[in-house]
Amino acid sequence: MSAPTISKLTPNSGPVGTTVLISGTNLASATTVRFGATTATILSNTSTSLFVTAPTGTGTVPVVVTTAAGSSTQNLQFTYNTTPSAPVISLLSPTSGPAAGGNLVTINGTNLLYTTAVSFGGTPATSFAVLSNTQISAVAPAGTGTAAVNVTNATGPSNNLTYTYVAAPTVTSITPVSGTTAGGNTVTINGTGFTGATGVTFSTTPSPSFAVISPTVMTAVVPPGVGTAPVTVTTTGGSTTGPNYTYSSGPVVTTATPSVGSTAGGDTVTITGSGLGGTTGVNFGTTPGTIVSVSDTSLGVVTPADVAGTVPINIATTGGTNSSISFSYVSPPVLTSITPTSGPAAGGTVVSITGQNLASTTDVVFVSATAVVAAASFTVNSDLSISATSPAAAAGNYALEVVTTSATFVPLPPILQQKTGTAGIFYLGNNSHDDSQPRKIGQIQHLQEGWILVSVTL
């Protein structure tokens, strides 16, 4: 350990009680500082500086710093002079700060060189430094409300300037709580004490812009980021960290089932993937679907009506958008005729089915009151025609149904009747005939629903 050295006294003259900065080396472990034969009070020290209060004395005296390694030998002197003029302060910067204190306040004025104390509402500054005869820096102590700031030298205190203590803000909620990694969306922040806000950060990244709407509401534009970021609001009263904001890379979509449906809409589509929990909307093309279920890995959406064709499924979440999958609208099938309308119970009859929108047929079934029997086989000839081979089935009356990727169509009567048992034709009320015309078998009108017995030779 080396003995201390001193290189400068600031100031090097003044009245008793002057705060003196001693600059040098090896000063951290100073045990005594003497002005002549009188010991000074050490206010603070580092390895290169000491702040002391000039003790009682007169004339010009040497200043010596002593540590365990020895004493300084440089011949620096301090001159005691007459009582200085009273200090005058003209400006505080800043004029407000956190109730917890700790911020640095610059005080401008005159006759400040021999300042011995700085007070905030009667509470001494945590520390202060005389920078020149016209400027002091002081660390504000803790406080509340407004405080009269003054400085004191051997002559007395200065005039007062007002310093305002500001309570730290609180942050209670943010909306939304997540968004894309690209940032750019606007978050509403709720809390208290936002007046005079000086900054908003997401983790350590400042918001590109923010606005104070009221003391309890502000908005901030989210900067780019990843992961989870605590949101911090800073005012002259301090900084407060609120809820976390989560950056999401956006939804990932793997499947949409079914991917084909009716132009009439109403199909429930299950969309699977990840990052779907924050879904805010699903559009089929530009038309919104109706969301019926949401989880992080699955969406249930009812399709809106649209014209035939393929449209992208646009999924919007708080973390971004995805339109990587599509949905095809297909017009529902329309049946106009079946020929023949009867056949043997053993099956094997080739039934010609005509209509429209039949190209996407997936099933042809024969339906009775007690059974559903699939066609033995079927061939889609065109969008207007299907050939289906009737299956073996119990004798009776069967509706023929065509199922396509967009809909199931139950044809109008007559019902396909197997050639076994009582012969006749079955009418199904209003669907079986034009209501403006009488129902006839030959020349005989029949107004009732049900089986109309006719004589048939098999």
TrEMBL record:
GO terms for molecular function: semaphorin receptor activity. InterPro entries: Ig-like_fold, Ig_E-set, IPT_dom, Plexin. SMART domains: IPT. Residues 3-81, 86-166, 168-248, 250-330, 332-429 form the IPT/TIG domain. SUPFAM superfamilies: E set domains. PANTHER family: PLEXIN, PLEXIN A, ISOFORM A. This is IPT/TIG domain-containing protein. It comes from Talaromyces stipitatus (strain ATCC 10500 / CBS 375.48 / QM 6759 / NRRL 1006).
